[in-house]
Design brief:
seven-stranded parallel beta sheet; 10 helices
Length: 409
């Protein structure tokens, strides 16, 4: 079935799937928007009555409805459903409501099998800039594996398709950001892709963990470094449907003490797991340990079905900015090199050194690709078990480092 072309919807002025940022909401004291102004309608069961909610939205509310099933393995960009008032994620049991009208009356018209959650604004998790010491520290330089044949997806600001280090690589790309191509005009996505699956720089120094992996670059954050939560969900389901075995996300939204994990992200993660993928996400950079400020693991890394990655420095100390397991539902699973990390950058700069849990996360994603090459018939749970068993224990609290430093097979 062709994707819906509903740009002439009669409801377009009432409640379209608008570009994120038109009516952002700030939490008190926040300098950046916390929510987009849109909402998710979530069925308490993943396999809820999707047909029923569609009928309700169309007949009772007069909404024009798009569905992810119309796209199969192709990624969804909101430009392709312009004019829709709602997007049903058939695989996840959730519906994105584009209307900025109060969604509570809609909820009251349904039964207690549904609840409403605001859509989050998602940001890069990058600290201030400070060589490839990380490659040596996690033993990649001594491994005979390269991730050959393993599908590895990086969901970020896209990828610089003109980068000389990747010209001979076959890379599958898709942009989920309206009115932006996959071309990375920020740099963060290219840097993370370089760490996860780059090879060597122009001087012959290796900076990438899994250069043999098959790369999938999903643009879920804009060139400005932020995006809507639905764009990330679109990227996660796209990667899963295309058989990616590793999904790396160096992005997130800050979480408050006591806040539970996000149901929509957890649904998408479970869907990806059911398709054979392991997901890793950055724990976040909100802490300042020098001032004894320890912040919770960010969303979506705090989800039970996503592995949260913290950062360490060259001395194997926890990075000053790296978040901690403050909330019961937001544990740190592993740590990896995340301070002073040399990797690819958009041309003409070509390379840059950055710090952040964003840099630690693709190290772990690359190691997972190496493990999957070594154990090609393993399940995601078996690969996670191997990852935990082979990690190097550190004399630091599990709240900060989880089981320890991920090591290459």
């Amino acid at each position: 079935m062709k994707p819906p072309k509903i740009g002439n919807s009669p409801f377009k002025n009432k409640g379209t799937i608008r570009p994120m940022g038109m009516y952002p909401y700030h939490e008190p004291g926040d300098r950046q928007p916390h929510y987009t102004g849109r909402h998710f309608l979530i069925h308490k069961e993943t396999k809820g009555d999707k047909a029923g909610i569609k009928r309700m939205l169309e007949s009772k509310w007069g909404f024009t409805v798009a569905e992810t099933l119309d796209f199969k393995t192709r990624g969804i960009n909101e430009q392709e459903i312009e004019g829709a008032d709602a997007l049903i994620y058939n695989e996840l049991g959730i519906t994105l409501l584009g209307t900025k009208e109060d969604p509570i009356p809609l909820l009251r018209s349904l039964d207690n099998e549904y609840f409403i959650a605001p859509e989050k604004v998602v940001y890069l998790l990058e600290d201030q800039p400070p060589s490839t010491w990380g490659i040596k520290t996690i033993g990649v330089d001594r491994s005979r594996y390269t991730g050959l044949g393993v599908r590895l997806a990086v969901l970020d600001t896209g990828f610089d398709e003109t980068h000389p280090d990747f010209l001979e690589r076959e890379i599958t790309t898709c942009s989920f950001v309206p009115e932006e191509t996959v071309q990375d005009c920020h740099g963060h996505g290219t840097h993370c892709i370089g760490v996860a699956s780059g090879a060597t720089d122009e001087e012959g120094h290796r900076y990438g963990v899994a250069p043999g992996a098959s790369l999938f670059a999903g643009k879920v954050l804009s060139d400005g470094g932020s995006g809507a939560q639905s764009w990330v969900l679109n990227g996660m389901t796209w990667a899963a449907k295309n058989g990616c075995q590793v999904i790396s996300m160096s992005l997130g939204t800050p979480v408050q003490p006591g806040e539970i994990y996000d149901i929509a992200y957890e649904r998408a993660a479970r869907f990806a797991l059911s398709k054979g993928a392991l997901l890793v996400a950055a724990a976040g950079n909100d802490s300042d340990r020098s001032l004894q400020r320890l912040c919770p693991v960010s969303s979506p890394a705090d989800c039970p079905s996503i592995l949260a990655v913290g950062a360490i420095d060259e001395e194997l100390n926890v990075a000053n900015f790296s978040n901690r397991a403050v909330n019961p539902s937001g544990l740190v699973d592993f740590v990896a090199p995340g301070v002073g990390i040399h990797s690819a950058w958009v041309m003409p700069t070509r390379y840059r050194t950055l710090s952040g849990t964003s840099m630690a996360t693709p190290h772990v994603a690359g190691i997972i690709a190496l493990l999957w090459e070594k154990y090609p018939t393993a399940t995601p749970m078996e690969i996670e078990k191997k990852l935990r068993e082979t990690s190097k224990q550190l004399p630091i609290a599990a709240e900060d480092v989880g089981v320890g430093l991920c090591m290459a097979p």
